[in-house]
Amino acid sequence: MPTRSEVAALIDHTLLKPESTPEQVAELAREAGELGVFSICVSPNELPVEVPAGVAVATVCGFPSGAHHAEIKAAEAARSVRDGVDEVDMVVNLALVKTGRFDEVEAEIRAVREACPSGAGVERPVLLKVIIESAALTEEEIVACCEAAERAGADFVKTSTGFHPAGGASVEAVALMARTVGGRLGVKASGGIRTTEAALAMIEAGATRLGLSGSRAVLDGLSD
After folding, report:
1. Which member of 86, 89, 129, 155 is catalytic?
2. Which CDD domains does the protein's record reference (predicted)?
């Protein structure tokens, strides 16, 4: 079983409620340092944000619906990069997915990738995660989304926003995503993970990052 510190190092400590205040974001950052998590994930309007040493900053893009023009998503991501983020979690356009237009899915991911510089020679690489809303998709659509994300140069695929009525992460979706990307991309499980047991099940299925709003409750079930 992973230790508390090993699981903490996989967590994006998340606060994405629309009514979140700067004071709550500051408390999130303070708690992130205390818990030893990998990063905090906050809304773009909360940027820039100060964090303890060793804690990364992530934000969202095209959130939560994904129903934005690609150029708007790219502009939002570029603004977040200027505001100092280390990682961007973008939501795909589900209408494109549901109508089988995966070339367009790839194109919008690529547009955001270009707004989030990465790779050799980049002074401050920004990691890109692609949120596919796996609970709203068929297995075939999950696979096609993951393949489009890989072709477009994303770093991670991510299950869910946590706001879709279809639900959040499932062990089955995480396992399918992990098989599809084959270790070439990371897999982030996010949405409805509230217990230690659920978090461990996601890791066992292949998750390499966890998006949690209740990080302390999950970590309290573990020991070093």
Report:
1. 89
2. DeoC (cd00959)
- pLDDT at position 119 is 82
Known active-site residue 12: no
Q: What is the pTM of this model?
A: 0.97
Q: Considering the candidates 12, 86, 129, 158, report the single residue annotated as catalytic.
A: 158
The domains of the chain, with CATH numbers, are 42-190+202-207 (3.20.20.70)
Q: Does the active-site annotation cover 89?
A: yes
| 3-state SS, residue 57 | strand
Question: pLDDT tens digits for 40-85?
Answer: 999 999 999 999 999 999 999 999 999 999 999 999 999 999 999 9
Looking at the chain, list the stretches that DSSP marks H as alpha helix, in order from N- to C-terminal side. 4-8, 22-35, 70-82, 94-98, 102-115, 139-151, 171-181, 196-205, 215-219
Indicate the SS3 state at residue 12: strand
Q: Which distant-in-sequence residues (6+ apart) come within 8 Å of 204 by Cβ?
A: 171
